[in-house]
Amino acid sequence: MKGFNKKWKDFQEGKLSRSGAKAFLEYLHSPDGKKAYQQLLELVWENETDSVSTDTLLPSKPPFPEEEEDQKKTNKPSRNLPDNSLRIYRWIRYAAVVLIVLLLFREWGYLPPYAAEPIAEELDSESNWITRSNPKGVKSKILLPDSSRVFLNASSEINYPRNFTNNRQVRLKGEAFFEVEKSGEMPFIVQASHATTTVLGTSFNVRTHSPESIEIALATGKLRVRNEQTGTNMQLAPGEGSLVHSGSQPMQKMDVDPKKISLWKEGILHFEKEPFQSILKKLENWYDVEIAVNGNFPNDRCSGTFQKNAYLTDVLNVLGHSMRFDFELTGKNVSIYPSPS
Fold it and tell me: What is the C-alpha to C-alpha distance for residues 150 and 164, in angstroms, rounded to an integer?
């Protein structure tokens, strides 16, 4: 990172934006960041040895402002600290700065919670992965350290490594829409169950709520989809999607509408020729409810688009008219049953 010392100073003075601060902390936790920080500490030590002020790097208030004020009023000589005490004081100050950084790491989820036993720092350890998840009824937008954006749907989860800038890999459970920033020739990889998607810079949607058939739809750019179970690959262009079936069944290419791929991240509920049971599952995640089906219903395919913040009752009324069912809503529980003939 160019201008590390300047970044450090801006970070300490609170001049960085939240996203900029998170990116700086992510870099600070990387091998290159640790090296740059070590060099900064060595520079501080050299400056301390030469009795040169380091306030341009690690700004702080004068050590005894009250005594300075008293000195002006009473002309009393100020208290001078021995060189060793002054050096200890300054290093306590640096230690406090490091502690603040560690606390910010922990607050923003870059460090695991306190544990009774130390956590081993292994490259493949889960402690080196960051997890972001949403419960039912909640959607979120996540800015990754490389400035790529992830729109995470309800009842979904992503994991990515702490050294993400050097290892752009994401694990996905559920559904997410990705807007990927280019980063030289470093690929951006999304692993969802048995499907692996590799891109350099593009926007696409991945849905894994049905593990038997992963849905991947491309809005812009290009990407490669791989079925890890069969070892086969498929290239997608904008407006194309892929169904990655489990087992030995070949991948299936399909046409998609790029404008409709990401409607859900805008708060618009949309389904097109989806099985009835799949729609009920989507409604459970969307509205954070439990739907109990009483009676037998054909698993017909349905289509519909409901504008932002549509009420669940309005959606159920439309579906009920199409599928001929009535419903009862009690708190977070929905019961549907066939309409009287």
Answer: 14
Express each pLDDT in 214-239 by its tens digit: 999 999 999 999 999 999 999 999 99
What's the mean pLDDT in 335-340?
90
Where among 230, 259, 288 does a domain terminate? 259
Counting the structural domains of the chain, the total is 3
User: Is there a domain that residue 121 lies in?
Assistant: no
Structural domain range at position 210: 126-259
Q: What's residue 181's pLDDT? A: 93
The last residue of one of the domains, among 107, 140, 156, is: 107
Farthest-apart Cα atoms in the chain, separation: 100
CA–CA distance, 126 with 121 (Å, rounded to integer): 9
pLDDT category at 313 given cuts 50, 70, 90 is: very high
How far is 75 from 17, CA to CA, in rounded Å?
44
| Nearest in space to 133 (alpha carbons), one of 166, 103, 176, 196 | 176
Shared domain for 133 and 45, answered yes or no, is no
What single-letter DSSP state applies at residue 75? -
Whether 171 and 189 have beta carbons less than 8 Å apart is answered as: no
Dump pLDDT digits (tens) for 248-271. Answer: 889 999 999 988 888 999 899 998
Identify whether residues 229 and 286 lie together within a single domain.
no
Reported pTM: 0.60
H helix or E strand, kind and range, residue 244: strand 240-245
Does residue 334 lie within any of the structural domains?
yes
Note whether 25 and 34 are within 8 A (CB).
Answer: no
Tokens 């290009």 correspond to what residue? Answer: 222
